[in-house]
């Protein structure tokens, strides 16, 4: 508290704001991290026969009677628990072993990382809209996720202005009413049978609410730790607004990997006639 007493109230708020923006950004894994999970099953074979859960659509009009939307939505329960024969790993919970952090410029210096990240809730996704167009090579969809819960272990060290930042412990974040719009460009590749390959993706999203708690901040100082967590939760909308661009890039990498893992292994001849 002696260090804080030497900083003006305005400086203190700036310190907290910079810490919280950086902490949440790193927690939600920016683009470099997301690439860690991309195309994990590329060495697995494609499906040879159509499984019962795979809906068949018309190739000349896959969106007729919302066929592609239904096909897309009906895959969620299966990819949530994993599809072992094509190497699709479970994504509920989605597990990431570690994320390393090294950021520093001017008054803001942080290093460390997160490990044993567990994300629960993706399997409760509902597909509000989905459209597949082979003429324009566009695959677009709108998703809603009622709740995502993220647990991890963090370890961060650094300095912000005059305040040393040292924290290690558990972190928990809950995101509610997540609405995501995804626009992609895809190609058809022989993998070896022709299948969809997502080449690029743009993601936009809205979050209805956020709660976060970082344990053991400031070397276990309960007063400073409680103040930072309170500030984060009272300013959730502002935090998310500051991070929107970085989060959208990170989500695009995550979704590109997840959907390529599925679509690469579904030969078009099995679900388009």
Describe this structure in words.
This protein is 32% helix and 38% strand. It has helices spanning 2-5, 9-27, 31-34, 67-74, 76-81, 222-234, 236-263, 268-271; strands at residues 94-105, 108-120, 126-133, 138-160, 163-190, 194-214. Strands 1, 2, 3, 4, 5 and 6 form a six-stranded antiparallel sheet that branches. α2 (9-27) packs parallel to α7 (236-263). The chain is elongated and about 65 Å long. The model is unreliable at 2-37 (pLDDT under 50).
Residue windows where pLDDT falls under 50 for at least 5 positions: 2-37
Largest sheet: 6 strands, antiparallel
Percentage of residues assigned to helices: 25-40%
Tally of DSSP β-strands: 6
End-to-end separation: 69 Å
Question: Mean pLDDT, rounded to whole units?
Answer: 80
Strand proportion: 35-45%
Order of helices and strands: HHHHHEEEEEEHHH
Ordered list of secondary-structure elements with their pairings:
Elements: H1 2-5, H2 9-27, H3 31-34, H4 67-74, H5 76-81, E1 94-105, E2 108-120, E3 126-133, E4 138-160, E5 163-190, E6 194-214, H6 222-234, H7 236-263, H8 268-271
Antiparallel strand pairs: 1-2, 2-4, 3-4, 4-5, 5-6
Short description:
With 273 residues, the chain is an alpha+beta fold. The chain has helices at residues 2-5, 9-27, 31-34, 67-74, 76-81, 222-234, 236-263, 268-271; strands at 94-105, 108-120, 126-133, 138-160, 163-190, 194-214.
